[in-house]
Amino acid sequence: MNLMPDRKYPYALLFGLAFSSTILYGQKVDTKKKDKEKTEKTDSIAKKAKSIDELVKKGTYKKGLFNIIEVKTDIYFEIPDSLFGRQFLVVNKLSQVPMQVNEAGLNKGMNYENKVISFYKDAKAKKIWVKTINPIASSPKNDAITASVKDNFSESIIEVFDIEAQNNDSTRVAIKVNKIFDGNQKSFNDVLSNTGLGGSVKSNLSYVEQVKTFPENIVVKSQLSTSVNEGGSDLPITLGVTSNLVLLPEVPMQPRFSDNRIGYFTEKHWFFNDNQHKMDDQRFITRWRMEPKDADREKYLKGELVEPKKPIIYYIDPSTPKQWRQKIIEGVYDWQVAFEQAGFKNAIIAKESDPNDKDFDIDDVRYSVITYAASPKSNAMGPSVVDPRSGEIIESDIIWWHNVMTSLHEWMRIQTGPIDPKARGNKFSDEHMGEAIRFVSSHEVGHTFGLKHNMGSSFAYPVESLRSKEFTDKMGGTAPSIMDYARYNYVAQPEDNVTAITPKIGIYDKYAIEWGYRWYQNSEIEKQALKTMIDIHQNDPMYFYGEQQSSMDVVDPRSQSEDLGDDAVLASEYGLKNLKRVSDNITKWSYEKGKSYIDAGRLYYGTIGQWDMYSGHVLANVGGVYLENPVFGDNKKAYQAVDVKMQRKAVDYLNRNVINIPKWLFFNDVIEKTYAIKNSPMGPYEQTPYTLAREMQYNIIYSLFSDDRLLRLLENELNHEQSNSKEEVYTVEALFNQVRNEVFEKKSNLTMLERMTQKNYVDALIVSSNKLFEKTTVTGFQINQNLQIPTICNYLDDDKSARNINYSSMKRVSEVTTYKRAELQKVLHLLNKKKNKGNDATQAHYTDLIIRINEALK
């Protein structure tokens, strides 16, 4: 016999398999006897199971979804047989945070973890098992493949409880649940991992503070403590958390399938059936269950407006300052017109909570609340709790950070100050700020209906129309969708007398709500009706949906953040005219007798940031590609390069306004009083003009010559070459020629800004070329997907984008490096011709650049 142990088994287990009894430390142990004793002990314990009535006599009893028994600090769930096997959704939220966590961007109301669970009764073992599942797959009940679906998408055990008590006929059992809510176990609530804090809960400093039960949900509030190490010292952290246990409908809502031509958040689902030749991979849109009352269905189908069975109700957080409550409520009601287009009246309600309602709790999933967070964070967001089986929105909580008004003030002041005297001071009137709050309320509420950002909406309006009072009054906003980031009308000039300058609910919004919420008798009628709705509007730019893109690399210039109109160059030129007016009035608009110039410095920094944003809007057109989602029969192209004239015009704008740094912006009278001041966690951060100009110009040049942008230009050139197209195409060479001529065709002595620009140009090429050959290793870096805290309400679907287009694989063997090194050679040739010309500073500059390029090219 080979007595060497198998790697899978320790020695004791190996010998236990070989013999019916084992010698341990010289003693012979009869394992059969031990097993018998163990069984008898277990049976003895099982027989001691208390009756529920005994538990109730010792504590308090609350009736609800699960009846709750509290005996001193012990908490018991009384679970009836009817709820075993049913699916529940665990919803975990933050309800209190200390300053350190607040400063990191985590605030009350944030939903950080959800999971679907079920309870299973094991009468033989006297235990209750809890299992979780990702309900991503389904199949017809009677299909053969259904057995395989069940086995290949099975539940996982996450927790077990002993049955502590039961009623006389064992149809109800009680389990002690402290461990899943007091931090001892992470099975139901893993707050530290899911908020990115890490570490473990200190159970001796944590406890359950309150349990409430209602007919369809249970609310458990806990105080969970930990510590984080900052600079060698431990900081105590206690989080108030609320766990909701929600009973999901036995029959899920009929899902509505997504379409990439309209913007809804989605839930992924896989369908299997016996007749398939491949799995059906679909997405459900997220939406509220909205349907007419049974008695009103005929009226609804005839086109009459009817009230829904269950309206969507939003409550205003009682901690919201009183002067903003009505404006937030009005922002909710702005969507009423969209639901009326879908056939429902009084579909949405917004109101303040009843102070006499003792059950009201903003952390309770029965209430959708616009939560007001006291925080330095300048933001707002509108997430939803969703039944992943169907996409049904169960509850929505808008998180409204108090300091969002800082961003609103800056946007309005810089973008509309030149045409609106109300938007010029260090502080606006409550009425003026209230209108901005109403706009943000409408935008965030749109997210809670399931709508994603439509960043392509603003492209529908001709730029010149934004200067028309008649047009803007008629359209009532800056874009056909309030879900775009089309903030305020920076295009209109003072002489235009335009007053409708704030985003409003638009044509696309009404259409999107109708598409998502109109009720149909059955799925076949629904499918055809929704297709028809899109077909009717597919060529109308007012109904165009543009997917949100990464701000680091915009491919489709139509779908950008903060832009306006159908021509980024023209819109930005109008924007610059207004920006010069702001620049001329920075000290005037920020004047307060006896105060420092810090507000002037902040306004100055925001003004420069707006200039940079305009440059980015224009830049996206260079190497830009219009992206569509064509379907068979609509004759649309999926990829269409931006017209060559537009690309050339965009580069010309950059030459005039970036390559030639605007002195009116960076070197004006303001810097006699203050530099541009950027807010930072360490306090105000003063930016010197030369440093700021150098940095911002460099970033734009580097982005202009980015690998991905050049690869898109090369891709388009190759497509034209292969198709023998006679159309003119904008090439990489054309780009370099157009910019190089502006940067280096300077005569005699160079100014310091001209030398700066030439250094930026050369360095951007050298650094980006070298990066292609650097050895890079990514180790241990993971993005926390459970808690996404957007910077400016920056929602992206879990795919990040509907379009994942590979332009940049194997860059090292692409033509990019060839062109960049060839460009360096051309610049080197120019410099060698010029090196003995100009004054000493100019010649020293040329020598420096020659050395840099020679070293780079080796």
In a nutshell, what does this entry contain?
With 858 residues, the protein is of the alpha+beta class.
Give structural notes.
The model is unreliable at 1-29, 38-47, 776-791 and 795-802 (pLDDT under 50). Helix 23 (732-744) runs parallel beside helix 25 and helix 24 (752-771) runs antiparallel to helix 25. The protein has 858 residues and is of the alpha+beta class. The relative contact order is 0.07. It folds into four domains: 11-44, no CATH class; 50-247, no CATH class; 260-541, Collagenase (Catalytic Domain); 567-714, no CATH class. The protein is 36% helix and 19% strand. Strands 3, 4, 5, 6, 7, 8, 9, 11, 12, 13, 14 and 15 form a twelve-stranded mixed sheet that branches. Strands 18, 19, 20, 21, 22 and 23 form a six-stranded mixed sheet that branches. Strands 10-16-17 form a three-stranded mixed sheet, with no helix packed on it. The chain is globular. This is Metalloprotease.
